[in-house]
Each structure stands twice: as structure tokens, then as C-alpha cells.
Design a protein that fits this description.
The complex is a heterodimer of chains A (about 190) and B (about 190). Chain A is an alpha+beta fold and about 190 residues long. Chain A has three helices and eleven strands. Chain A has helices spanning about 1-30, 50-55, 185-190; strands spanning about 35, 60-65, 70-75, 95-100, 110-115, 120-125, 130-135, 140-145, 150-155, 160-170, 175-180. A four-stranded antiparallel sheet of chain A has the order 2-3-4-5, with no helix packed on it. Chain A has a four-stranded antiparallel sheet with strand order 6-7-8-9, with no helix packed on it. In chain A, strands 10-11 form a two-stranded antiparallel sheet. In chain A, a hairpin with a 2-residue loop joins strand 7 and strand 8. In chain A, about 30% of the residues are buried. Chain B contains no helices and 15 strands. At the A-B interface, helix 1, strand 1, strand 2, strand 6 and strand 9 of A face strand 1, strand 5, strand 12, strand 13 and strand 14 of B. Strand 1 of chain A pairs antiparallel with strand 15 (about 180-185) of chain B, so a sheet runs across the interface.
């Protein structure tokens, strides 16, 4: 009888401890595992007035390359050129930043930045430890050390006015849909 | 295009505004000259089928798994449909918020979306100007048809980009709030199974 009582107390204790674990794990969803301020890594929290007026909110993209690596890309603008003040998109010196974080610790694994032609450039997909990054009409496949594995130019050579418009990826990001559009400038029409 | 090899698999021309793809199909809105917009789902080599969605006009749609599409519908419950247009279920968190930014996990079991407060303080002067403040991120678990959890956004700035991502198995959520990158560990699947 005493043994049965002891057993039930032990069982109750196990259930209580397990119940506490579940409750605290549920609460943990309200507490971030980690938070990092990206401003120290080049993120433009306050874009210049000219940048905002010309491009709107600078695009930022997040994707998990795999369960261990989180990738963030964003665009910044290098200190201006004189014609930037006129709000001409091609006068900005845009810079694409790619940062790979360790998911468990929040430490920066790899970080690179380079000039880029388009304000919408950045991460397109992350999958199986690889990431696809768009720069203008080019797509480049990188590993999580940001070593370029392959690059492709999506602009059709026989249609000079056609430009890459948007890129969509499937839920398992193994496929990309590239949407292109005809771009007309006053010179190309005239 | 195959994302692993960057090789083009198919190409076609269409007046479709693509919005989302699965491994086999593309969904988007087509705007015929004489009628209102229609949701079309097609494969690269077939012209596609129109999905009857009388209550939706050009709403944002997103594949959340290979055969399930979520339709962003503002304050209304969010319909999840099969690719033949059949309604699977409509999901609605308990808060009255504007639901958007549907983002799926790679394995297709969970997806996340934001709930926002929309304001227009100067409606009379500027009726098209709205202010959005993201309030929460919701994570929905499709196999169990339950919300895995919700994460309250602490410092939501007005009209910010607010990108978010789920890890491949949906166990980790990341979002950018202002200049702060936030990462949350989410409850594993078995814990919220009823």
C-alpha cells in the first residue's frame, strides 16, 4: 500500500514536472531566443530622404538556407552622387548586403556586401544549405559560406527590352518562377 | 527554373500575373478585358483552369504546401483551398486584425502570417493613406488544423516592410522588426496536438 502511494506520488511529480516544461515552452514563444540589431551590420534604419522618395522602403529578405543557417539580405545606398538629389534611380550607388547567421546562437557566420544595380535585389530562395541571390537580371547560387557555385543571366539575348520582373519560389524552395516584362524607355520607343 | 541548378525547366508566355508557385503549378490573377479578375492555376505546358472565387478580387494568394493555397482576405477568415478550388477550411485567429504576409515553411506543414492594426487618421484629407502596425505573427499547423502559437510584436513601426521566415520544419520563426532581427523557437508539433 505504501509502495503504491509512493509510486502514485512519483508519477504525479513526473506529470507535474512535464506539465511545467510544456507550459514554459509555450511561454517561450513569447520570448525571443535571440535578438540582434542589424544597424551595427550595415542595415540602414533611416534611409536618406532621396532614397525613400525614389525607392520607398528598402527591401529586406529573410530565408532559412537550412535549419542551421538564417540568411538576411538588404539594400543600402552608398554616400550620394550629385545626381542622386534629382531622384534618378540610376544615380544611386546601391549596395547589397548578405549576412548568414547561425540559427542556434545568433552569431554571424558569413557577411559580404557588393554593389548591385537594382533596389529589389536580394535573396530569392534558401534550400538545402544553398541560397539564390538576385542582382539585376542575374541569379547566383551560393553556399552558406557565400561561395558562388553557379551564376545565370536570365535576360533573353534576343529580346533586349525584356527584363526580369519578379521571382517566386515554391514552398519547398526547389523551384523558381521567373516573371519577365517588357521595359520601354523613351529611347527604345523612339 | 530549378533552384538547385539554376537550369530553366520550362518557359511560356501568358497574360497571367503570377503570384505563387508549387513544384508543379503556378497560380495568379488574369484580368480579362470584359470581366473582373480571375484566379488561374496552370502548369508550364497547359493553359490552366479558372478557379471560381466570387468573393475575392486580386487578393494575394500563396501556396503553403504542394496542393494547398491560402488566400489573404484582410479582416475576414483566411480560406485554405485545394488547387481545384475546393475549400479545405477557413482559419481565423481570435483577434480582429488585418491578416497578410503568408509565409510557408519549406516542408509545407506550417505557415506564418501577420495580423495588423490598420488606421487612417486623416481619412477625409487622404482617403488612400493607411497606416499599418503589425501586432502579431501567427503560426498555423496544417496537419493538426490548429494554431501552433502566436508571437506578439513588441515595437511595431508604422508601414514597415516586416519580412518573416520559418525554418524548414517550422520550428523556428524569424522576423525583422525595425532594425531588429528576432528569432523565436516555436512549440514542436506534438505539443499542441489535441
Amino acid at each position: 500500500m505504501t509502495r503504491a502511494k509512493l509510486l502514485s506520488v512519483a508519477l504525479l511529480s513526473v506529470l507535474t514536472i512535464r506539465g511545467t516544461e510544456i507550459a514554459s515552452q509555450a511561454r517561450n514563444a513569447e520570448v525571443p531566443a535571440w535578438v540582434i540589431n542589424l544597424t551595427g551590420l550595415g542595415y540602414p534604419t533611416h534611409s536618406s530622404k532621396n532614397f525613400s522618395k525614389t525607392f520607398g522602403v528598402p527591401p529586406t529578405t529573410l530565408a532559412f538556407a537550412d535549419s542551421e543557417h538564417l540568411v538576411v539580405t538588404f539594400i543600402s545606398s552608398d554616400p550620394g552622387t550629385p545626381s542622386e538629389q534629382e531622384g534618378r534611380p540610376d544615380s544611386f550607388r546601391l549596395r547589397l548586403h548578405v549576412i548568414v547567421f547561425e540559427v542556434r546562437t545568433g552569431q554571424v557566420d558569413t557577411q559580404r556586401d557588393w554593389p548591385t544595380p537594382n533596389p529589389n535585389d536580394g535573396l530569392v530562395a534558401g534550400h538545402d544549405g544553398r541560397l539564390v541571390v538576385r542582382a539585376g537580371d542575374n541569379l547566383t547560387l551560393y553556399d552558406t559560406t557565400l561561395k558562388a557555385l553557379k551564376e545565370t543571366d536570365t535576360a533573353p539575348g534576343d529580346r533586349p527590352n525584356e527584363r526580369l520582373f519578379a521571382v517566386f519560389t515554391s514552398p519547398p524552395p526547389t523551384s523558381c518562377c521567373l516573371s519577365s516584362a517588357l521595359v520601354f524607355t523613351p529611347n527604345s520607343i523612339g | 527554373m530549378n533552384a538547385d541548378t539554376l537550369e530553366t525547366v520550362h518557359s511560356f508566355s501568358d497574360s497571367l500575373y503570377p503570384q505563387t508557385i508549387s513544384d508543379t503549378e503556378i497560380a495568379g490573377w488574369r484580368i480579362p478585358a470584359s470581366r473582373s479578375s480571375e484566379l488561374v492555376i496552370r502548369t508550364p505546358d497547359r493553359p490552366g483552369r479558372v478557379i471560381a472565387l466570387p468573393n475575392y478580387r486580386s487578393n494575394k494568394v500563396a501556396f503553403v504546401s504542394e496542393d494547398t493555397i491560402a488566400i489573404e482576405s484582410g479582416y475576414s477568415p483566411m480560406p485554405l483551398i485545394r488547387t481545384d478550388g475546393t475549400l479545405i477550411e477557413s482559419i481565423a485567429p481570435h483577434n480582429h486584425e488585418w491578416f497578410s504576409r503568408v509565409t510557408s515553411s519549406a516542408e509545407g506543414h506550417r505557415f506564418a502570417f501577420t495580423g495588423s492594426r490598420i488606421r487612417n487618421t486623416f481619412e477625409t484629407l487622404d482617403p488612400h493613406q493607411t497606416w499599418e502596425y503589425v501586432q502579431r505573427v501567427y503560426i498555423y499547423d496544417m496537419p493538426t488544423h490548429t494554431f501552433a502559437c502566436e508571437v506578439k510584436v513588441k515595437h511595431s513601426a508604422r508601414n514597415q516592410d516586416f519580412p518573416l521566415a520559418l525554418s524548414p520544419n517550422g520550428s523556428t520563426l524569424a522576423f525583422l522588426d525595425g532594425g531588429s532581427l528576432n528569432v523565436y523557437q516555436l512549440p514542436p508539433k506534438a505539443e499542441h496536438r489535441q
